Amino acid sequence: MTSVGARLSRFRQKLGLSQEELAVQLGVAERTYQAYERNETEPRCHVLKALADVGGDPTWLVTGRTPAVGRDRAEATGSPMFLAIPHFAETLRLPGEQDVDGETSHAALSLTHDWAAGLTGCNPADLVHAFAGDDAMAPVIAVGDLLLIDNSDCDLRHGRLYAFLSSDILLIRRIGRTVAGQLLLVTEDVRYPAEPLPIANGEASFSVIGRVRWHGRRLPD
Q1: Which residues are within 8 A (CB) of 185 and not within 5 positions of it... i.e. 6 or more apart?
Q2: What PROSITE patterns does this protein's entry cite (predicted)?
């Protein structure tokens, strides 16, 4: 029978993640995660819960056995176990071009189909991911928070949260409306006043990436 560490390594490789990347998703230090794979220590309850949140099966990890219900359900639904959620920049550039961060590529985020659908309430095939880059939406969204964005929903509606690209800068803002009906970009931090949608020469000088459907905080090491 394989060990807990071997099963965890197998799960990580199936996700296509490095040890550092999965450690971040589980909320532990990289050295702690490495100790799991070396069987020097075993994941505690909060780590097993985080594992389930990214599509893992704690029962399988600990015992090596997969519940029959889970196998039967996957076979019956035909849903893919995992899907790759691309970084938003990957959808905005041509092959070989640098993206808005000056990078040539970003790793996709691997999630289970059912988990992503239940979490966001939309078709997972329409999702892209990003990381918040400023503190304008704090304390609701902090710098570095993971965002899941539905890029099929770009119809701006009052009160909803959207991701925008303006002058190659990623902005996360809520849509507001003035008494006269003008749409505003609204923040949570009073240091950043609400602003009208940026318009230049009669046309919008920004692009809507999509509606933010979920955000989650990265835990400190």
Answers
A1: 164, 171, 173, 174, 175, 176, 194, 195, 196, 197
A2: HTH_CROC1
Residue 67 pLDDT: 45
49 and 103 both lie in a single domain: no
Alpha helices in 99-196 (DSSP H): 113-120
**3-class DSSP state of 177:** strand
- Smallest CA-to-CA distance from 153 within 184, 189, 123, 195 is with 123
Domain count, the chain: 2
Q: Is residue 90 part of a domain?
A: yes
CA 144/CA 137 separation, integer angstroms: 12
Give pLDDT tens digits for 31-73. Answer: 999 999 999 988 887 788 788 778 777 777 877 765 433 344 3
The verdict on residue 221 lying in a domain is no
Q: Are residues 206 and 125 in the same domain?
A: yes
Domain for residue 194, yes or no? yes
Of 77, 97, 115, which marks where a domain is finished? 77
Q: How far apart are CA 17 and CA 30, in angstroms?
A: 12
My answer on whether 99 and 204 are in the same domain is: yes
Nearest to 59 by CA among 209, 36, 69: 69
